[in-house]
Write a structure and sequence with these properties.
Layout (H helix, E strand, L loop, with lengths): L1 H58 L1 H11 L6 H15 L5 H12 L3 H14 L10
Helix pairs in contact: 1-2, 1-3, 1-5, 3-4, 4-5
Length: 136
């Protein structure tokens, strides 16, 4: 009878110890994944902020010319802004959705308000923020 109790207690303690270690390991793994996801999301949001500002500059170059001259003196005209957006488009192949890439390409080919809005909406979807409920 003592051997059975000893075996039972030893088995119970070992089981609890292994379960605790497994739980801690799983929690640690999930925390690492969440941290990586949050970091990637911040990077994605930062890239999209740059792209949306470039898009607005391409859409209304004359109103943004002074700001561009201060912040990006290499962007001298509307075509140079569109060329920069094309380079961003290639870079975005690494992380953007197909929808965002499609709409951005449409914007580069025809930089109008409608294509800007569609691209912005697709970017919001990529960021998990849903569709725009306003018209621009």
């Amino acid at each position: 009878m003592d051997a059975n109790w000893t075996t039972l207690v030893t088995g119970l303690l070992a089981g609890l110890g292994i379960g605790s270690v497994a739980t801690a390991w799983i929690q640690h793994s999930l925390k690492l994944k969440e941290t990586a996801f949050q970091s990637q999301r911040k990077d994605l949001e930062a890239r999209y902020r740059v792209v949306i500002l470039l898009m607005y500059a391409a859409y209304d170059f004359e109103s943004n010319k002074t700001t561009l001259r201060i912040n990006r003196p290499d962007l001298l005209n509307k075509q140079s802004v569109l060329d920069e957006l094309k380079a961003e488009w290639y870079n975005m192949m690494l992380f953007a959705s197909a929808e965002t890439l499609t709409y951005l390409k449409s914007f580069i080919e025809n930089p109008d308000k409608e294509n800007l809005a569609k691209t912005a909406s697709a970017m919001r979807n990529d960021l998990g923020r849903g569709n725009l409920s306003i018209k621009i």
